[in-house]
């Protein structure tokens, strides 16, 4: 008579143990990005990569082409906000055109496969210490998030600019008062850039100059 205590360890007819194993497969209907926990934008830090970000796009820049040391490329950025913070998302390389045509202001998106990097405070319009860059493995999906309100810009007056800290980015609504002739400016690297100055005025009866390049 066989020993019943050892029966559970006897290999089955196929040569494999009869012991059940836990499956590691994911349901084909499951969105893998949803398995990961969504992080608030305020929780993005330099020491932690990956995860899922969700937010509403509040603005995006035009595509900018660059050339340096014989290399060329293009990039653009957009601002994304949730109920905790705002953060800048930088898109460059082969994904630039595709993502630019996808992103729409006031729409909400889920981002995975991103990388945080330190922000340059002189070129940032947010209070966040980080900005997010996208790579070839990054994925963006439009989502519905009615709990994230649409944000409205708080415009400054021209008169208040003198009281604003230097190198801060602001929103300004004004009337074009005058447009000066285009100038050719020689840069340090020898390249020629076009510059035109616009004079703006608003209800505060103050005038400010705005330099436009290229």
Automatic annotation (TrEMBL):
The keyword Zinc-finger applies. It comes from the Eukaryota. InterPro entries: NA-bd_OB-fold (IPR012340), REPA_OB_2 (IPR031657). Keywords: DNA-binding, Metal-binding, Zinc, Zinc-finger. One of its GO terms (molecular function) is zinc ion binding. Residues 158-214 form the Replication protein A OB domain. Residues 1-30 are annotated as: Disordered. Belongs to the replication factor A protein 1 family. This is Replication protein A 70 kDa DNA-binding subunit-like. It comes from Galendromus occidentalis (western predatory mite).
